[in-house]
Design a protein that fits this description.
This protein is mostly helical and about 400 residues long. It has helices at about 1-30, 30-45, 45-75, 80-135, 140-160, 165-200, 200-215, 220-260, 265-275, 285-300, 300-325, 335-375, 385-390. The chain starts with a helix and ends with a helix.
């Protein structure tokens, strides 16, 4: 009798806990919109700090090297080498960005003018070809007349009912985008200022983070987290810096070759190819499409030659330049690289495609460590490989 009562009590407690879990889960799901709203609001407020952190992280390797150089020159001073290294790092970044912008803007302007001048002739040629084709194919012409009649009726209905709301939405969207551009410019300017403070106090922030880590977690877990953070820093820093150098080399090679081939808008095409090359795997295709369309308006033969050149250039980059610079930085196979690009690209767009590979490499390393630890705990040494033994 006592056992039956204990079983009923256990069953009742289980049902009660399950009910509480369901209620809490439903409350959490209903509150997701509120959490997302608050998180988005906080993220919007902290955007300058995010920009500043990203700028400081990208400039920290150059800043560290410059500071070591100036420290050797002025060993008795501490502030002067740091100030000079931060100032020169920021100037280098601003000059580089300004040079790219000044190189691209005239090319964009000339390309737009060229397109505007050649477009009427292309339209006349297309209209003439369509007229000749319809004269030789009366059935197609009658079908198009029916389609045009139906389309014109729908167009009249749309002009009467939906034109004004659509125009209002477009004008409102333009205002929102203009405000977003102004806000983004302000956040970027504040981010540059914040990056100066972060670069000036980077050792102090690192020390405070280590103190917090060691003060909150046990020594074993603190060492593990610190080791994983160092691995993540090595992964992101090595991948991003190597990818930027690789893309710069590809952009320069593209500019030299397109100039030798006398392609129009060679500088603009080279910048597009170089910038999109930062995206692993899909970058060459993303950069080649708009560049090929731009050349197609000028000359189909140049477009075909450019596509062949891009194939050769990307083979050179994928087999020689990239491996020499990056090596096997992430330690991921081609399958997991493609998986990471598709996953994080679908979640965060272009930025996810760029950061997805090193981020997934860090997650992969964490999962591998946990698996090896579990295998050791269960004494399944037959499933451990040499890499796992070295990692732990």
């Amino acid at each position: 009798m006592k056992r039956e009562n204990e079983q009923y009590i256990k069953l009742g407690v289980t049902i009660a806990l399950a009910g509480m879990a369901v209620v809490l889960g439903g409350f959490f799901l209903n509150s997701l919109g509120w959490f997302a709203l608050v998180f988005g609001r906080v993220l919007g407020i902290l955007k300058p700090f995010l920009y500043g952190g990203a700028i400081a992280y990208l400039l920290s390797p150059l800043c560290n090297r410059l500071e070591k150089f100036f420290t050797r020159m002025f060993p008795k001073s501490r502030r002067f080498p740091r100030a000079c290294s931060i100032l020169l790092s920021l100037l280098f970044a601003l000059v580089l960005v300004g040079a790219v912008v000044m190189l691209v803007l005239p090319q964009v302007g000339s390309s737009l003018v060229s397109i505007a001048l050649s477009l009427p002739g292309e339209i006349d040629r297309a209209v003439k070809w369509a007229g000749e084709y319809l004269e030789n194919n009366p059935q197609v012409q009658s079908l198009l007349n029916e389609i045009w009649a139906e389309a014109s009726q729908r167009l009249q209905v749309w002009l009467k009912t939906d034109l004004l709301p659509t125009a209002q939405n477009i004008l409102g969207g333009i205002g929102v985008h203009a405000a977003g551009i102004l806000g983004g410019t302000k956040d970027l300017f504040l981010g540059i200022l914040i990056s100066v403070y972060l670069l000036a106090s980077r050792q102090k922030f690192a020390l405070h983070a280590r103190m917090l880590l060691c003060g909150v977690l046990p020594k074993h877990w603190a060492d593990l987290v610190e080791e994983e953070i160092r691995y993540a820093d090595k992964m992101f820093n090595g991948f991003l810096m190597g990818k930027l150098l690789d893309s710069a080399i590809v952009g320069v090679l593209c500019f030299v070759c397109t100039s030798l081939f006398r392609f129009k808008s060679a500088a603009l095409i080279s910048v597009i190819v170089g910038v999109t090359n930062i995206i692993p795997f899909f970058g060459p295709f993303i950069g080649a499409i708009p560049s090929a369309l731009l050349l197609l308006l000028e000359s189909p033969s140049q477009c075909l030659l450019f596509l062949l050149f891009i194939v050769v250039l990307q083979q050179l980059d994928g087999n020689f330049i990239g491996p020499k610079i990056l090596g096997n930085t992430t330690g991921l196979s081609s399958f997991w690289v493609l998986f990471a690009i598709l996953l994080f690209g679908g979640l965060w767009g272009v930025m996810g495609m760029i950061l997805g590979v090193p981020l997934f490499a860090v997650l992969y390393d964490m999962a591998r460590r946990l698996i090896y630890r579990g295998l050791r705990h269960k004494q399944r040494y037959d499933l451990l490989d040499g890499d796992g033994e070295k990692k732990e």
